[in-house]
């Protein structure tokens, strides 16, 4: 199963291959003409079917010259078109200055189907008509692919008219920079209609691409949801009267949040098969002075049945209250088991002796709501950008967040209504992390909101 | 035991444990394991399993699994022993004697089977109304909690989590935790039977019952109902007259072989309504647990797999160059826009637009008064136009910077230079600001460089390569004299 990708120089043939193969490393792409000077093969594996080989070819640079040359050659040799073309591609001496075109035509003549890539921003010119003339003479099925259609000033209408004139009606509009999943499916469907006998391969490929796309969306939403739960539940303790300790705790928390966001970014980029050069992230700006402080004052402790003013506060019991608020445990299950015993001993060891001081002198830092919203908004925006980014794209993503868009409102509401569960955050330490079913449910809820936001905007 | 995706239980466990380990620690990309997985021609789950098997963490995780299994077996056996002994003690306590060797038969049965029946109803309720699996979650959370508290270390923690995930969570967890609870109850009831047997074998009891609010008929009816199943199994049961004769304080225990019939009754009720149902449910739950566990699939929506799948199951399996080219790619020079065009001899100028749309200001551009050759993009016309152009002193070829210069354009320029003579040809590049606006300055710069090098190769010198828009005043020098 061979597909040749041909077109004028700089029409985006290699970009099309990159986008179809999800590979930012395939071939060389530049704005200079004739960047691809060789034929390069990429093999698409479709489970249970024949492989599909895609061939990237050098651009057809001088089609008018080539057409005139081959017409002359044909007259001299008194052959028909296909014979003449076959002689041309297989005899280097006959190729004159058209060696590059000979490489491309060589692939065309061997291919089951030809993708003819067009830069739809450019007018239909005589040289493109000559390309179509030559392709027509090769007698292979051709699917024209209109590239760069996301550009507002495009010539799609005149291209369609011209292509119809040479009997090419199965046209696909597919931008290699601005990815469109339906466009990709349409591309394979058009190929399948031209190659009736091999339609099953493309149907299987389309199914596989759909499944993968769904998995990718869900996994990406989960990446964002896990980042959010880690940041939402992150806590840092400090001595209430010590400003230096407060600043240190704040810095620690901020750097933990930044690292966690970067981790989510690289996970997203990796899952979507882009590299770190594809995204230029703006620094995460924390809202100044809006970090919330929960003091461990007597009132808070009272709710847990403790009286901080009395010396009789037991070490273990106070530790229990602190752990409950600061995180580190899942009391719900643990208190009912012998595990609670181990916990009590542990708490007593950690807090015993200094209990009173700790209870009256500690404060806790957590991430404020605006920062969380910003995190959610930035990563959802990145995910949106990645889902509509072709692997042929060259310019990095720079959009930072969703701004005034209210598609994330349901997520923000859910975030705000979530009760504190410090033991759910990886940022509070792996050995206190609880992977309870409840945590998983909440992550799924967050991920569901992110997914809906993505779908509603696409 | 085979599973739905053809992977063994141990393998699936290893995959889960590896995931937990990698989610807790940084992901280890061992290229050998990745390569092996990629080469495996199978579905994604199998490929993930191949990778997990070939990671260096597989050995420690597998060892950890064996240790854990031993620990679990030990704990379960210990629990079974504890429940067996508890059952035995509960039965002994039920034989609390009343004035000699009298045993209240119904009190004994309630103390042995009461909690068991309540538990059974709760279990069935959970199963029917869907709140089942609570025990499994509880066990799972508690054990994971304990492991964390005991500072288990990442490998052991991952092993514990994987074991809990596969055996105590979800549908498989529902059935396995059921199996656990049924087995413990079976042990409890077995212990009870054992104690009853020992008691009855070594002591002489008189079975009685007593009541404050119920009647003798109630007890006769209850005994009759409970006796139906044992009687169907041809086990002799106490009849109504024996029930009536056993009421305290009337009973004297001397009524024939009443003590033997009551012993039968006691055993039959504990075994048929306690032990056997629990054993049956234990085996059923174990079977269902295995079925459900075999149906467990990897959650391919996990972020970890999202990054792994492209690596081990890529869309493109391989790429290679099939028809190479050794020609070096030429360097692109930097094109500078002209700010000035030196005054030239006032002679007649011919103007040709090559592959150009009619500009916004119309064609020919304002201020041009020489020989207009028009817009052209076809090679066949070129010769005719050049013949005309020869009447003029010089030819200005206008080209757009928006497309990149291809070899066709180079050939056209070369042809023009050959026919007109090097000195007489000027190239005017327009649309550079438009390109810069659309694609950025760097793209525009690079594109102009490409055009300059194309013009240079065709024999047009840098001085004759002019970058300007039609409204630029400097063009007046280029347009020459008006005819």
What does this structure look like?
The complex is a heterodimer of chains A (458) and B (483). By secondary structure, chain A is of the alpha/beta class. Chain A is built from 17 helices and 9 strands. Chain A has helices spanning 13-21, 63-77, 81-90, 99-110, 126-138, 156-165, 181-194, 199-232, 243-271, 298-302, 315-326, 331-334, 339-351, 355-361, 369-387, 409-417, 437-457; strands at 2-7, 39-44, 52-56, 113-119, 142-147, 172-173, 235-239, 292-295, 362-366. A 6-stranded mixed sheet of chain A has the order 2-3-1-4-5-6, with helices on both faces. In chain A, strands 7-9-8 form a 3-stranded antiparallel sheet. The model of chain A is unreliable at 294-358 (pLDDT under 50). Chain B has 483 residues and is of the alpha/beta class. At the A-B interface, strand 2, helix 2, helix 4, helix 8 and helix 9 of A face helix 6, helix 7, helix 12, strand 3 and helix 14 of B. Strand 2 of chain A pairs antiparallel with strand 3 (316-323) of chain B, so a sheet runs across the interface.
Summarize the structure.
Chain A is of the alpha/beta class and 458 residues long. Chain A has 17 helices and 9 strands.
SS summary, helix count of chain A:
17
Supply Rg of chain A.
31 Å
Q: How many strands appear in the DSSP assignment of chain B?
A: 8
Gross morphology of chain A: elongated
Element string of chain A (H = helix, E = strand): EHEEHHHEHEHEHHEHEHHHHHEHHH
Mean pLDDT across the residues of chain B is 85
Low-pLDDT sequence parts of chain B: none
Quantity of strands of chain A, as a count: 9
Instruction: Determine the strand fraction of chain B and express it as a percent band.
Output: 5-15%
Topology:
The complex is a heterodimer of chains A (458) and B (483).
Chain A: E1 2-7, H1 13-21, E2 39-44, E3 52-56, H2 63-77, H3 81-90, H4 99-110, E4 113-119, H5 126-138, E5 142-147, H6 156-165, E6 172-173, H7 181-194, H8 199-232, E7 235-239, H9 243-271, E8 292-295, H10 298-302, H11 315-326, H12 331-334, H13 339-351, H14 355-361, E9 362-366, H15 369-387, H16 409-417, H17 437-457
Parallel strand pairs in A: 1-3, 1-4, 4-5, 5-6
Antiparallel strand pairs in A: 2-3, 7-9, 8-9
Helix pairs in contact in A: 2-3, 3-4, 7-8, 8-9, 8-15, 8-17, 9-15, 11-13, 15-16, 15-17, 16-17
Chain B: H1 9-24, H2 31-39, H3 44-54, H4 57-94, E1 102-104, H5 105-129, H6 134-149, H7 154-167, H8 170-202, E2 206-208, H9 216-232, H10 240-245, H11 258-295, H12 303-312, E3 316-323, E4 349-354, E5 371-376, H13 379-389, E6 394-400, H14 407-420, E7 425-430, H15 432-439, H16 441-457, E8 465-467, H17 475-479
Parallel strand pairs in B: 1-2, 4-5, 4-6, 6-7, 7-8
Helix pairs in contact in B: 1-3, 1-7, 2-3, 3-12, 4-5, 4-7, 4-8, 5-8, 5-11, 6-7, 6-8, 7-8, 8-11, 9-11, 13-14, 15-16
């Amino acid at each position: 199963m061979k597909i040749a990708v041909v077109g004028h120089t700089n029409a985006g043939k290699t970009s099309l291959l990159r986008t179809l193969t999800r590979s930012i490393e395939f071939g060389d792409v530049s704005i200079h003409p004739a960047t691809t000077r060789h034929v390069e093969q990429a093999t698409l594996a479709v489970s249970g079917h024949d492989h599909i080989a895609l061939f990237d070819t050098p651009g057809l640079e001088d089609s008018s010259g080539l057409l005139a040359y081959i017409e002359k050659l044909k007259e001299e040799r008194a052959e028909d078109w296909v014979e003449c073309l076959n002689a041309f591609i297989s005899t280097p001496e006959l190729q004159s200055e058209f060696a590059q075109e000979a490489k491309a035509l060589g692939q065309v003549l061997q291919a089951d189907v030809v993708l003819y890539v067009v830069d739809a921003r450019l007018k239909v010119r005589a040289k493109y008509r000559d390309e179509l003339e030559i392709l027509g003479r090769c007698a292979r099925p051709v699917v024209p692919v209109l590239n760069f259609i996301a550009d507002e000033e495009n010539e799609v209408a005149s291209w369609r008219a011209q292509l119809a004139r040479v009997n090419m009606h199965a046209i696909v509009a597919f931008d290699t920079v601005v990815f469109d999943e339906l466009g990709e499916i349409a591309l394979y469907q058009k190929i399948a209609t031209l190659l009736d006998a091999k339609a099953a391969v493309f149907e299987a490929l389309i199914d596989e691409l759909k499944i993968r796309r769904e998995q990718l969306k869900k996994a990406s939403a989960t990446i964002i949801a896990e980042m959010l739960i880690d940041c939402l539940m992150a806590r840092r303790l400090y001595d209430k009267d010590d400003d230096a300790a407060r600043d240190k705790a704040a810095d620690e928390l901020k750097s933990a949040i930044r690292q966690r966001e970067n981790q989510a970014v690289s996970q997203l980029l990796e899952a979507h098969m882009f590299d770190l050069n594809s995204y230029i992230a703006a620094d995460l700006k924390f809202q100044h002075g809006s970090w919330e402080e929960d003091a461990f004052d007597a009132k808070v402790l009272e709710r847990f049945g403790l009286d901080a003013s009395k010396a009789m506060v037991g070490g273990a019991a106070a530790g229990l209250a602190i752990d409950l608020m600061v995180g580190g445990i899942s009391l719900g299950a643990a208190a009912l088991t012998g595990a609670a015993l181990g916990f009590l001993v542990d708490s007593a060891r950690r807090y015993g002796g200094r209990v009173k001081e700790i209870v009256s002198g500690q404060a806790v830092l957590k991430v404020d709501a605006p920062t969380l919203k910003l995190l959610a908004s930035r990563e959802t925006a990145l995910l949106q950008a990645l889902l509509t980014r072709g692997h042929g794209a060259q310019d990095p993503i720079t959009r930072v967040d969703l701004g005034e868009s209210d598609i994330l409102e349901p997520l923000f509401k859910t975030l705000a209504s979530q009760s504190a569960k410090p033991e759910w955050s990886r940022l509070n330490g792996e050995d206190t992390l609880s992977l309870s079913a409840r945590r998983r449910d909440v992550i799924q809820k967050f991920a569901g909101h992110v997914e809906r936001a993505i779908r509603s905007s696409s | 035991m085979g599973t739905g995706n053809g992977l063994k239980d141990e393998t699936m466990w290893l995959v889960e444990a590896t995931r937990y380990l990698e989610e807790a620690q940084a992901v280890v990309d061992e290229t050998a394991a990745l390569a092996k997985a990629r080469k495996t021609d199978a579905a994604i789950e199998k490929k993930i399993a191949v990778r997990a098997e070939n990671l260096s963490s597989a050995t420690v995780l597998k060892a950890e699994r064996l240790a854990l299994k031993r620990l679990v077996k030990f704990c379960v056996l210990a629990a079974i022993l504890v429940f067996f002994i508890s059952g035995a003690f509960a039965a002994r306590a039920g034989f609390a004697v009343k004035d000699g060797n009298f045993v209240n038969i119904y009190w004994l049965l309630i103390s042995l089977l009461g909690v068991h029946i309540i538990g059974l109803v709760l279990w069935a309720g959970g199963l029917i109304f869907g709140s089942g699996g609570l025990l499994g979650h509880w066990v799972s959370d508690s054990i994971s909690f304990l492991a964390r508290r005991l500072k288990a270390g990442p490998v052991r923690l991952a092993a514990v989590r994987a074991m809990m995930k596969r055996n105590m969570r979800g549908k498989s967890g529902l059935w396995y935790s059921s199996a656990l609870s049924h087995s413990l109850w079976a042990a409890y009831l077995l212990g009870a039977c054992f104690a009853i047997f020992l008691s009855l074998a070594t002591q002489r009891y008189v079975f009685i019952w007593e009541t404050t609010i119920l009647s003798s008929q109630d007890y006769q009816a209850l005994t009759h109902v409970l006796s139906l199943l044992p009687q169907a199994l041809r086990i002799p049961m106490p009849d109504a007259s024996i029930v009536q004769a056993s009421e305290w304080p009337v009973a004297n225990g001397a009524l024939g072989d009443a003590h033997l019939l009551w012993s039968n009754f006691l055993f039959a009720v504990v075994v048929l309504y306690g032990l056997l149902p629990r054993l049956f449910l234990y085996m059923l739950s174990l079977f269902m647990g295995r079925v459900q566990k075999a149906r467990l699939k990897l959650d391919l929506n996990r972020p970890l797999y999202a990054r792994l799948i492209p690596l081990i199951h890529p869309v493109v399996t391989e790429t290679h160059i099939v028809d190479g080219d050794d020609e070096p790619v030429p360097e692109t020079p930097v094109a500078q826009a002209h700010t000035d065009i030196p005054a030239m001899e006032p002679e007649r100028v011919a103007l040709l637009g090559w592959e150009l749309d009619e500009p916004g200001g119309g064609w020919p551009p304002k201020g041009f008064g020489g020989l207009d050759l028009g817009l052209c993009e076809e090679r066949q016309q070129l010769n005719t136009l050049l013949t005309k152009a020869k009447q003029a002193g010089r030819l200005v070829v206008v080209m757009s910077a928006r497309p990149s210069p291809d070899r066709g354009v180079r050939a056209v320029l070369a042809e023009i230079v050959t026919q007109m003579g090097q000195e007489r040809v000027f190239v005017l590049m327009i649309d550079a600001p438009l390109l810069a606006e659309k694609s950025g300055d760097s793209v525009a710069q690079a594109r102009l460089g490409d055009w300059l090098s194309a013009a240079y190769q065709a024999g047009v010198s840098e001085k004759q390569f002019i970058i300007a828009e039609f409204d630029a005043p400097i063009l007046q020098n280029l347009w020459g004299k008006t005819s």
